[in-house]
């Protein structure tokens, strides 16, 4: 027994090490993925920071209604001929004076530019806020596409593996027939070519699966080496009805709700405000200044410092007006540019409306097509499956050649892939339309 103890310890150590090295797999539903994406997505975090910046700038814009207050100090030490600030006479001796000034500048009128600037900052805040909604929409749709694609590829990969196993059995059968002299060697090569084609399809799908897994991890801001497993949703759904009769109303409703279209409308309003700001340059600017100034000299031993400060104090209020007469066409250029940019924003908003209308209409059309495609592909798969089963038996009995069997096998593979694809397409497109209409994206 004592001789076997070291072997037992080695085996136990190996089992513990293997258990520690085995990565933990996280099982996630679509709701779990969406929750993590909204909490950790880097693009969304960037947009939220932009919203905070816009909010800070909007709050700070109200400060332009207040006076600008500054304080300055001057410590002067001079030797030689100099003007004494107390007597305003030239003296030829060392002077040591200190002067302080408190300024307050008021913006009394600037063509309503201050209020228009506050309005512009408020619009910027609204734009940044709706931009966050747009980012959430985009990453939700992107996440759903990746999620559906991963499940589709996983299912199609399993089908590819079964197809390869089926081809391997046919290769064994063809090899036996070749050994018995029933078929030529070229017949065996054709089945091997069929198997090689299926293996290539498998490798391509596996590569696509890896790419989509990396993308969905990056959306959730997970480490690349994190192992995840996605929960398969119920593919038996009740699609939306009356899409043909309501497609235009649904499209209009979806476009008006879409953050991208609302953002383009806000940007049009923002461009209109910029035009108003540019026109304010044509108005005169009235400003006011109030200051209090005093000084004291450290060389005046006879007069106390506090008496010098109070005795030398000076208070003044001034008003200034600046009337624009000619600015070398600068004001004209800014007004003209702002007007053109406003028209550009209007056109862009219309382009965005057209783009989104086309996008929503495509989703509706794809949903209708997916319903018909699912039903048709289900029938096609059922018949090709029966046909392949019959041709497998015929090939074993030698009643059909390899060309006929290969054609039936290719039709079966294609019908199976089409059926799997149509079911996932219907699931995604149906959920997408509901999402466009304001419902939460759920699979």
Automatic annotation (TrEMBL):
<dbReference type="InterPro" id="IPR051906">
    <property type="entry name" value="TolC-like"/>
</dbReference>
<comment type="similarity">
    <text>Belongs to the outer membrane factor (OMF) (TC 1.B.17) family.</text>
</comment>
<keyword id="KW-1134">Transmembrane beta strand</keyword>
<keyword id="KW-0812">Transmembrane</keyword>
<keyword id="KW-0998">Cell outer membrane</keyword>
<dbReference type="InterPro" id="IPR003423">
    <property type="entry name" value="OMP_efflux"/>
</dbReference>
<keyword id="KW-0472">Membrane</keyword>
<feature type="signal peptide">
    <location>
        <begin position="1"/>
        <end position="19"/>
    </location>
</feature>
<dbReference type="GO" id="GO:0015562">
    <property type="term" value="F:efflux transmembrane transporter activity"/>
</dbReference>
<dbReference type="GO" id="GO:0015288">
    <property type="term" value="F:porin activity"/>
</dbReference>
<dbReference type="GO" id="GO:1990281">
    <property type="term" value="C:efflux pump complex"/>
</dbReference>
<protein>
    <submittedName>
        <fullName>TolC family protein</fullName>
    </submittedName>
</protein>
<keyword id="KW-0813">Transport</keyword>
<keyword id="KW-0732">Signal</keyword>
<dbReference type="Pfam" id="PF02321">
    <property type="entry name" value="OEP"/>
</dbReference>
<dbReference type="GO" id="GO:0009279">
    <property type="term" value="C:cell outer membrane"/>
</dbReference>
């Amino acid at each position: 027994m004592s001789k076997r103890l070291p072997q037992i310890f080695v085996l136990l150590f190996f089992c513990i090490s293997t258990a520690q090295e085995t990565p933990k797999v996280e099982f996630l539903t679509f709701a779990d993925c969406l929750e993590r994406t909204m909490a950790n997505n880097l693009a969304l975090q960037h947009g939220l920071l932009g919203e905070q910046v816009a909010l800070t700038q909007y709050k700070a814009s109200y400060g332009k209604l207040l006076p600008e207050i500054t304080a300055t100090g001057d410590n002067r030490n001079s030797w030689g001929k100099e003007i004494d600030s107390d007597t305003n006479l030239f003296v030829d001796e060392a002077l040591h004076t200190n002067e302080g000034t408190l300024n307050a500048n008021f913006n009394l009128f600037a063509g309503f530019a201050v209020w228009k600037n506050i309005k512009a900052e408020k619009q910027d805040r609204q734009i940044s806020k709706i931009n966050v909604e747009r980012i959430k929409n985009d990453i939700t749709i992107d996440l759903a596409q990746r999620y559906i694609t991963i499940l589709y590829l996983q299912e199609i990969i399993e089908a590819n593996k079964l197809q390869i196993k089926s081809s391997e059995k046919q290769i064994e059968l063809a090899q036996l027939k070749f050994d018995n002299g029933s078929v030529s060697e070229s017949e065996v090569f054709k089945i091997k070519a069929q198997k090689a084609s299926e293996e290539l399809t498998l490798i391509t799908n596996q590569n696509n699966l890896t790419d989509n897994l990396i993308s969905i991890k990056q959306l959730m801001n997970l480490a690349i080496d994190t192992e995840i497993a996605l929960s398969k949703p119920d593919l038996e759904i009740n699609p939306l009805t009356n899409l043909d009769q309501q497609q235009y109303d649904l499209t209009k409703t979806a476009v008006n709700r879409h953050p991208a279209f609302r953002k383009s409308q806000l940007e049009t309003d923002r461009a209109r405000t910029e035009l108003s700001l540019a026109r304010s340059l044509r108005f005169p600017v009235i400003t006011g200044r109030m200051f209090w100034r005093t000084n004291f000299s450290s060389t005046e031993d006879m007069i106390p410092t506090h008496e010098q400060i109070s005795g030398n104090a000076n208070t003044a209020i001034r008003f200034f007006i600046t009337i624009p007469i000619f600015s070398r066409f600068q004001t004209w250029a800014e007004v003209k540019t702002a007007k053109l940019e406003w028209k550009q924003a209007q056109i862009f908003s219309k382009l965005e409306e057209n783009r989104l209308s086309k996008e929503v209409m495509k989703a509706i059309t794809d949903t209708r097509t997916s319903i018909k495609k699912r039903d048709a592909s289900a029938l096609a798969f059922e018949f090709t499956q029966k046909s392949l089963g019959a041709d497998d038996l015929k090939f074993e009995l030698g009643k059909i050649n390899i060309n006929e069997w290969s054609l039936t096998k290719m039709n079966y593979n294609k019908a199976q892939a089409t059926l799997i694809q149509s079911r996932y397409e219907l699931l995604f497109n149906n959920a997408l339309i509901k999402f466009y209409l304001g419902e939460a994206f759920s699979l």
